[in-house]
Amino acid sequence: MKTLFSAILMAALAVGIHAQSRLDNAKKQASQNKQLILLNFSGSDWCIPCIKLHKNIIETDEFKKLETENFIVYINADFPRNKKNQLSSELKKENASLAEQYNQKGLFPYTLLLNSEGKVLKSWEGLPSENALAFSKEIRDIKEHQK
Question: In this structure, which of 65, 73, 127, 132 has its CB flanked by the most CB atoms within 10 Å?
């Protein structure tokens, strides 16, 4: 009985520890490299504004420069509906935990710019009106004012 209880406890702790691993890793990386964290909540296979956001901003070279030039750490908390696009149970739990903490209204798309401690610096509800260049510039400007 002790062994069963220990196994259940270890499994619960492992899930709890893993549930925030992307955010925890992003906070650590952001702190070490003086970066910001961009957290995006999306429905990649059902939310038309989410799909447009990814196509017109996140997948562009201008946005990717933010990552390669160490301005941001990017996290996508995706909530797909189609069976073929389902995430692992661990990733589903992690995304649900992120939503519980940062997106309690269940908005899609919903994008947050966080500092290395996880404090919200800016949020975008829905599809940002800016193009990729303007969106990236806004993030760069916010980061510059953080110094």
Answer: 73
